[in-house]
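Tokens in:
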């Protein structure tokens, strides 16, 4: 017997003076490089800016556990993985993001709750299909993505073909993580594409195949355009 579960959820918007920016994209899309550049840009402007990431990896009990799972050193049932990310996120928001936004700072985050959908579907065995994406989205929504965690004021999606992302990852020296495999990256990209169609208003898509400088300029122009009221708010 099948049951149908459906509901409406309001997104939780940022009620604070600070500005919340998140970068999203598949592994190897260049988020970390661009976050560093954005951080330096705001610092040079003399703004109070906080750089952070989800998951927090080496930070705190859950972050450390997630890092071990990502490195394949600890195994947990795949159904449990995204719940750990959500638990880490809950602590991250109350310990770092919300206080920083309340204090009027700019928060730049490498990933946010949106990653839970494209990566959550990787924990299911089958090929990408919209039903499994919807299933993960509903599961994660019940767990509070939209209504308990503040949605970033700006979510930038760095768009890059899978092959290019893999090429970049192969040049990196970090320890390989469980999601960094071609088939998984391909499926995560399909998940993102599905997500971008579901929530077109929530993402700004940027072509991440361009040079680092070009991508950085485009990110800044998107942020300056859509966040001018926040930048004004920060200046008051
Ligand atoms: P990275 O950001 O350094 O690439 O590593 C984080 C990994 O964790 C990445 O493969 C995406 C994954 N992830 C999830 O599976 N769920 C989440 O909610 C988040 C934030 C990340």
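Residues out:
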């Amino acid at each position: 017997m099948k049951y149908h579960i459906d509901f409406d959820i309001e997104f939780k918007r940022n009620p604070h003076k600070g500005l919340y920016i998140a970068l999203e994209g598949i592994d190897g899309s260049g988020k970390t490089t661009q976050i560093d550049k954005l951080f330096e840009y705001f610092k040079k402007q003399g703004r109070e800016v906080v750089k952070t990431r989800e998951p927090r990896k080496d930070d705190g009990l859950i972050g450390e556990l997630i890092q071990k799972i990502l490195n394949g050193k600890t195994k947990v049932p795949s159904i449990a993985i995204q719940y750990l990310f959500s638990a880490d996120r809950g602590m991250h928001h109350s310990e770092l993001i919300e206080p920083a936004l309340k204090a009027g700072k700019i928060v730049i985050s490498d990933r946010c709750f949106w990653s839970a959908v494209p990566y959550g579907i990787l924990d299911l065995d089958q090929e990408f299909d919209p039903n499994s994406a919807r299933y993960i989205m509903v599961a994660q929504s019940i767990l509070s993505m939209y209504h308990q965690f503040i949605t970033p004021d700006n979510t930038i999606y760095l768009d890059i073909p899978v092959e290019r992302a893999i090429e970049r990852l192969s040049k990196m020296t970090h320890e390989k993580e469980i999601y960094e495999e071609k088939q998984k990256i391909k499926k995560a990209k399909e998940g993102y594409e599905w997500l971008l169609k579901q929530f077109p208003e929530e993402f700004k898509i940027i072509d991440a195949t361009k040079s680092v400088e070009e991508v950085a300029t485009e990110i800044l122009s998107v942020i300056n355009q859509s966040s001018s009221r926040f930048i004004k708010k920060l200046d008051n």
